[in-house]
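User: Hey, my collaborator sent me this sequence without any context and asked if I could get a structure. I don't really work with proteins. Can you help?
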Amino acid sequence: MLNLQVLRWMPASFRARLEGDSSLVKMVRNTGWLFLDRLVRLGFGMVVGVWVARYLGPEQFGTFAYVQAVIALFLSFSTLGLDQIVVREVVKDLGDKARILGTTLALRLVGSLFALAASILVVVLSRPGDHLTHLLAAIMGSATIFQAFDTVDLWFQSQVQSKYSVLVKNSAFIVMALVKVGLILGGASLVAFAWATLGEAALGAYLLLTVYRWRQGDLGTWRADKDSATTLMRDGWPLIFSGLTVMVYMRIDQIMLGQLGGNKALGVFTAASRLSEVWYFVPVALVSTVMPGFVAAKQVSEMVYYEKLLKFFKLNVALALAIVLPVTLLSSRIVSFLYGSAYQGAGAILAVHIWGALFVFLGMAQHPWFIVENLTKRALARTLGGALVNIALNLILIPRIGGLGAAYASLAAQLSSNLLMNFFDRRTRPLFWILMRSFNLFTGWSPNVRN
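Assistant: No problem. I've predicted the 3D structure and written it out in structure-token form, which is a compact way to encode the shape of the chain:
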């Protein structure tokens, strides 16, 4: 498979250790389906996405991006931070999947309605009288309701069967990408692209439910349970606010730039940042696959558990650097080729913003550790710190250097939240030292945990 071929490009010692670990090999095989999903989006999706940006121009594209950024702030309320927790619970108690998944779906539907209402309220208050932006928020925000049905995907993750979710989501994505091409050729308005966004979420939910019925049976067996809801929310509430603060430091730069610099400046910045963020699927795909393995490793021994963590962190560093270095060197040429002269200035922003990917990879790679160690409140604290760093630096840098300042602020927030802040808490300091060792890809494979 393609993902196993990629290992040939890794350092020999690094590759040998991965290939000698059967559980990690299984993880890499399953992750191939998740990489296939994103390869389609990187190829077909990137072409259509760039075409849409060129068609709309920086001004309209900035308006679209502003609404997306506001909606993203509240996505944690639609997922309720339950993804890895639900996977953990299903792995532990496979026989009770109907209760766990049914309760998760019910909770997510309630959370999605709250996210929709909050998104519309923020857009209305921040841009009074801008009826077009209000309409975009209502249409695009409704997609969060359909995303609640991604609960089905958690079942496939727990069984390491991501191929079904990949096939379903790619089908919906390709159909709606073709619709967007038709909208461009037909000279459609900005509102039409908002409807396409909603359509993709609705079609994806329908197909996901259809595949689940085919593979596992009717959802009618699912049931919501009050005690289960209490248990899930007790473990998940810190991750809700952790997700909120993650989105603050990942999206507040766009919201603040849109308010302080205008839609055009935001459009240029978003064009650059999307070329960075398109790679964030890599650690997400890896984490969704390795989570069951880390739960099992913890039950075997601490040494096995931390050895797997260190290998996983090194893998993420290697993959991140393989992306960051060439994009930095070719940033201006990439932007000029893809977006044209209308997005002049995005190249310099991309050269800075792409380095945040290194710390995003490590940040995502830490999620299993926080879940397994039941330290989700610590995750909340560090992401809150990163959000505060981002807001403070945006207030200082955006008025001075615009979108480039927002890129520097985002990079500083990622570095602070995903690495440095682990040092200042006794409970997360061992994680900090393991993360530091992960930057050495050639030696230092013993976890050597320190306080």
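In plain terms: Residues 1-6 have pLDDT under 50 and may be disordered. You can pass these tokens on to your collaborator as they are.
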